[in-house]
Amino acid sequence: MAKKKGKKRNAAKKRSDNVDPSKVPDSSIHAVEQPSSSIDVPEDDQLSSAACALHISERDTAGKKKRNVAHREVPSPCVPVVERPSSSINVSEDDELSSEACALQFTERKAAVKKKRNVKQPKVPGPCDATVEQSSGSINIPESDETCALPISEEVTKETDPLETVSSESESEAPLDLDLPRKPTEPGKLGRLIKLISNCFPLEFRGINVYHYDVEIISIGSNYTTEDNNGASLNGGKEKKYRCLNTKLNREVFRTMQRDHVDFRNTVFDGKKNLYSVLSLGIKNLEEYEISLDSEVPGDVNDPRGPRKDLFMVKINPVEKETGDNIISLEPLHALFKGKVASVPREAFMVLETVLRHTPCLRYVPVGRCFYYPPNENYTLGGGKEIWFGYHQSVLLGQKQAMVNLDISSTAFYENISVIDYVAQFLNKSVQGLHYISSLTESDIDNLSIDLSNVRVQVTHLHYPREYVIKEVSPKSANDITFTTTKNSKTRETNIKNYFYQEYGIRLQFPHLPCLLVKANKEVCLPFEVCTIVEKQHCNRELNGRQLAEMIKVTAIPPRERYRETLKIYEHSDYRNDQFLRAFDLRVQPDPLKVVGRIINAPQVQYSNEIVRPYNGSWNMKNIKFFSGTKINTWTLLSFADPTDCPKGLLHKFAESLCYYANSQGTELDRCSHIEIANAELQNVYIQFREMKDQFNAELIFVVLPLEADRSRHKSSQSRQKREVNSSILYSEIKKVAETNIGLITQCIKGKNVIEKYNNASFISNLCLKLNAKMGGINNTLMPGEISEFIKDSILIVGADVNHSRDENSIAAVVGSMDENYYRYAVSVSFQKNEKKKKKTCEVIRDMKNMIHKILLEFQKVRKSLPQKIIVYRDGVSEGQFQDVQNREIKWITEACLSIKRDYKPKITFIVVQKGHHRKFLPENQTQGAGPMRNCPPGTAVDSVVTHPLNYDFYLYSHLGLKGTSKCCYYTVLHDDNGYGFDALEKLSYYLCHIYIRCTKSISVPSPIQYAHLAAYRARRHLASHLKDLGEKGLLKGKDWKSKMDSVSIEEFNKAITVKDDMKDTMYFT
Length: 1070
Fold this sequence. Notes:
Elements: E1 8-10, E2 81-82, E3 111-112, H1 162-167, E4 192-198, E5 200-205, E6 209-222, H2 223-226, E7 243-244, H3 247-260, E8 268-269, E9 274-277, E10 287-294, E11 309-318, E12 327-329, H4 331-337, H5 346-363, E13 365-367, E14 370-373, E15 380-382, E16 385-397, E17 402-414, H6 419-426, H7 442-452, E18 456-459, E19 467-477, E20 482-487, E21 490-495, H8 496-504, E22 514-518, E23 523-527, E24 531-533, H9 545-555, H10 559-573, H11 579-583, E25 586-588, E26 594-599, E27 605-606, E28 611-612, E29 631-632, E30 635-639, H12 648-664, E31 668-669, E32 674-677, H13 682-696, E33 700-705, H14 718-725, H15 727-742, E34 745-750, H16 751-757, H17 761-774, E35 781-782, E36 795-804, E37 809-817, E38 825-833, H18 848-863, E39 869-875, H19 882-900, E40 907-914, E41 921-923, E42 940-942, E43 953-956, E44 969-976, H20 982-992, H21 1007-1032, H22 1041-1047, H23 1050-1056
Parallel strand pairs: 29-31, 30-32, 30-33, 33-34, 36-39, 39-40
Antiparallel strand pairs: 1-10, 2-23, 3-10, 4-26, 4-41, 5-17, 5-25, 6-7, 6-9, 6-11, 6-12, 8-9, 10-11, 13-14, 14-16, 15-16, 16-17, 18-19, 18-24, 19-22, 20-21, 22-23, 26-42, 27-28, 27-35, 36-37, 37-38, 40-44, 42-43, 43-44
Helix pairs in contact: 12-17, 13-15, 15-21, 18-19
InterPro entries: ArgoL1 (IPR014811), Argonaute_Mid_dom (IPR032473), Argonaute_N (IPR032474), PAZ_dom (IPR003100), PAZ_dom_sf (IPR036085), Piwi (IPR003165), Piwi_ago-like (IPR045246), RNaseH-like_sf (IPR012337)
Region (Disordered): 1-46, 117-183
Domain Piwi: 700-1024
């Protein structure tokens, strides 16, 4: 162990950089996930968008005040530098922490507290001075669609990028003091009772006082940069450059401080700014501590200064409260549960959260509110990714007590493999197979850039470990990237391949492949084969279909098994012996809370010749006709599949089957007017559609998409490869041309489905559901008496969602019901650029006023009057965003109403629906469970015990999970002029889940939310095709394409996602 010294400084009178308590950020924890409680496999094949480069935020790297010590960047052996403008990228905010825990077996870095000396290191000559500081980018992943065909409840965790996870850790999911409607005094009574077991464990605590301190940790160089061999100062009067740290390193520095300073032994730290202690630390003003850790960059073994040490300054300052001291009392939380206070004591809540989180953050790899460890077995997902297992833990406020929510969790991590292996897996080839390709396609490079952006790699060609963060994949190969290098005053031009041989004696095996462009002050190019992906990196990318299917296969478990695993988590956490819980006198009880729920009866669903009552969330349409079938006179079939895979004779058989089943279900579908097979080239889309519209007066075009490469009978053919490359872009082009250029309804079908299911009754019947609704028919409706209280008044039901993308823009969609049965919806979409670029996406719908205005005008046009009431279902909002949404969106809705008529003030109810949570319920009596997994039956509502002590909220199961554990939706009412009780909103929400046009099953969210999701996604397809067009015109090409995109007006983007007038009265997006 390194020699231990310590020195603290009282800097209150000497420093002007004391922390302002009013500016200390809150410390709540936020985890953003992508649950897949039900995975939708839409039959119109909504494919992924074309790749857009990811851009990373820079964070402020300066300390509060610079010290008079210069910071010298550590020189390293040169890697090839391509002369391009340099970009300074700051330190990553990964919330991933090494630990001494046996599960992770991290190697603890030796450390000591060393007395500070104002010294400077002279410039050390080296071949290059480029310094790399790591950063992580913001990745936004749209939630998976709701399925009808495969209602699976096991969530597949998706988090935000590490930077955002950490930065939002202290602000996102803490209870906020909002002016929300209070919980109805009358509990819900509708339905039959069912006893449930939750995964929430009672948390007991005393009303003690806790001392709150602000922490700032900054890097101040190393022992090699602050003193000469004799210990003399080398600062030369120059100021030192301070560097902010990531959360992982913050925790490591603070853990060293806890080990070496007895006063800090029982304190807890949130990894960012907040330190809590049950005892006063005796710090009255700002105090500073210097901490040293063994450096990963080795020093000279003969250097008298000894091993290289990284030095850090830890500044601690008491956070002054309104009372004049730095004390937080936990007693107001007890008062909250007794009903004596009307607001949540947020700081007290955050003390509980930080104490519970402190130990697992030291033991495991934290991702948001989940903690993961490497798997004991190989659970590979392919494509260089693997499954890690862990658990979720968070503190919640119940009606009468605090609770700890525990749940098993799984997510994808990058495999610790060489980049060349990763590339081979990503391309579905062997490493040897990479020798036989001449180069990567532009599409492959784009997709690899997206998948590897912000991933950390370690180089293997240096004699010491050095990490870089990937920016993108180069468009050129190691053979083709040339640059000028100077050695011994001689300048010469070389390429990457020759450079690595001349400098490192390495003969590249794959010089024909591209390189990694990494983040550094100068552009550094690294061949794939000299890089290894650093271990313990969470993959925050969207998994492809096969990876997602494998994830579900491995992780989906029945609810009772999940419950047993949850109890194991409790035992493994060993709360009773946790040093920090004992210090703060917190106790997590071993028995999870039990609650009485209610099972609401399913509604009666009406068809033209039958009324059916769903059983366990589903019903059969055999011998049943649509409530209102549509008539289609002329339609055509266009195939982009290879004719050897999908010949014309097979297309004729499919068309005949489609006519038969459509007519049997009540859609009058005449014989196909024309069948055409075309090359899968983008320019053919408009030509073919225009011809079919003009020559055949087609009302509808069925489009057969190319087969995937591994399903084609002609995998090696050049035309087959070309079709595969263009498949995702082809889908976007089809939808853009049909809906924004010409005005045509299209229905896309996968080529493999035509081949395998051309006469499959179930498949074609499901296709007819979409067909009838898109063309203006009504598949089914609720019996009028089922929701009479919502029919007697003129009510507009709104669904709203925001779709985020990797290129830092968002698309909002708002849908509004046009009929009294809440079946048909009008839609308005809007493009919006994010306010905090490179950090966070904006969840607030900025154009809400204009969008609601359009919906109201359409409602007035169809219904001949304006609605008396508006009920909004809002998706995609976390608790940390409630304030923003409540303050702005509800106000804009009111303004939209007033913009139509000055005295028009309908009553508004605004409900947020969340799927990204970990609360689970299990029927206490297994015989009361539904389906093969014995999940909670559809219609199960919970509005007591585990709900918020103040806010109007409830949980609702609306669908049946056939595989894994069902996941309920969490509803929070942000505004309620209508004064609806639990029974009214629970019943309406549940019933709206039964009139989703794509299936004869109830889905997990109200249908208007799912329609808003689909509409936003469809607009994303329109935009992707538009961006491709701009790129082909040279408007968005080159390394500055992002700045060029920023210069494109929002109006132009909105024009690109606006459909033709012919489409506006249809549900084209379904």
